[in-house]
Design brief:
By secondary structure, this protein is an alpha/beta fold. The chain contains 13 helices and 14 strands. Helix 2 runs parallel beside helix 10, helix 5 packs parallel to helix 6 and helix 11 packs parallel to helix 13.
């Protein structure tokens, strides 16, 4: 062997917004024993996980959760396709890729939708939401993304919910990239339907999504349209609440990991996790500023767990990704209209200050004229 062989980094730092670096206890939980999903052992595991999710989402005794074997998108699709009634319609607040995705999901299920297209990385226009609901009484639900991961923007969903409720409408919230780290609460904020994922700010393994809502709301789905079979929330709720069993074969190892990750999240607390993520993000953003790199959003609009950064002139994303990957860092491209000019850096998961410092040092060496 010659001396040019590049040493493999001891630690691979995932700076993509999920799946994330997990705690050793979460990874260890994945190797739990083989289990039949129709036996009491899994019933107990399922019930524990559902209860912990509801607590994480700020629910109380009025609320419950349904767990799905699928991604966060599966949870969002389950909520939209199940909650909007036959004669209902969805107002979609679109200021990024995932708001647009809600509109596409509604369209795929033949649900009438009004797309309030604000433009990527544009704050929610609350007056426009108010006007749209006022002029179209047929809009029964409002779809909004909490953390719009395409740009790193944190939308004011509490304000959106207040407006929606003033008009007598329900809110379907995509909290896939926010729940666990950003302040949100079913009870406190009155969120009607909250869709989330195990493998982002809740720091579990990928493979599970969930929907949390009032127990009465799930029960009211009995007469709702059956637009889908696998993602029918009433089917899952009936199985999980009445029989303490899954409707279909679940990803059992992912449940083991999620149970462990939820324990860690509850022990840390939402405020402490938000503070941990925010501190890492500040450390990263201060370093990016020092390197002269432009961050997409102003400080007041940024989520705690993701930063969109402009690519320096003369640097393409593929070469930047390759160079950093060799040094043990996985970065993430921007999407669609931002892809040519930006890349994204997540501070989700079990990242450390040392990871951030080493990344900034490596980035400085990698970028031209930034050493």
């Amino acid at each position: 062997m010659n001396g040019s062989t590049h040493a493999r980094p001891e630690r691979l730092v995932l700076m993509n917004p999920g799946p994330v670096i997990t705690d050793d206890r979460v990874r260890k939980a994945l190797s739990g024993p083989d289990m039949c999903h129709r036996e009491p052992e899994f019933s107990g595991l399922l019930t524990r996980v559902r209860h912990k999710i509801t607590l994480i989402c700020g629910g109380d005794e009025r609320h419950t959760s349904v767990v799905l074997t699928g991604s966060g998108t599966a949870a969002v699709e389950a909520a939209i396709s199940s909650a909007v009634p036959r004669d209902g319609a969805l107002l979609v607040i679109d200021n990024g890729h995932y708001g647009e995705r809600m509109w596409h999901i509604a369209d795929a299920h033949g649900i009438r939708a009004h797309r309030l297209e604000l433009g990527w990385a544009t704050p929610v226009d609350l007056d426009a939401v108010d006007r749209a609901l006022a002029v179209d009484p047929g809009l029964t639900h409002v779809g909004v993304v909490h953390h719009e991961t395409s740009s790193g923007m944190l939308n004011d969903v509490a304000a959106v919910t207040r407006i929606a409720h003033a008009h007598g409408r329900e809110v379907i919230l995509d909290a896939v990239s926010s729940v666990g780290a950003e302040r949100i609460g079913l009870a406190e904020d009155g969120i009607d339907w909250l869709a989330g994922s195990a493998n982002k700010c809740l720091e579990a393994a990928p493979g599970l999504g969930f929907v949390s809502a009032a127990k009465a709301a799930f029960e009211n789905l009995a007469d709702a349209p059956r637009r889908t079979y696998y993602l029918d929330l009433y089917r899952h709720h009936t199985a999980q609440e009445k029989s303490q069993a899954p409707a279909f074969t679940p990803g059992i190892p992912a449940f083991y990991a999620f149970d462990a990750a939820l324990d860690l999240a509850l022990a840390e607390g939402q405020d402490a996790r938000h503070a941990r993520y925010s501190a890492l993000a500040r450390r990263l953003r201060d370093g990016l500023d020092a390197l002269g790199l432009e961050i997409l959003l102003p400080p007041g609009q940024r989520a705690a767990s993701l930063t969109a950064v402009r690519l320096p002139a003369g640097t393409g994303y593929p070469e930047l990704h390759r160079g950093l990957r060799k040094e043990g860092f996985v970065i993430y491209s921007a999407q669609e209209q931002l892809a040519a000019d930006f890349f994204r850096l997540s501070t989700m998961g079990r990242m450390t200050e040392q990871d951030i410092d080493r990344f900034l040092e490596t980035l400085a060496r990698t970028l031209p004229n930034r050493g």
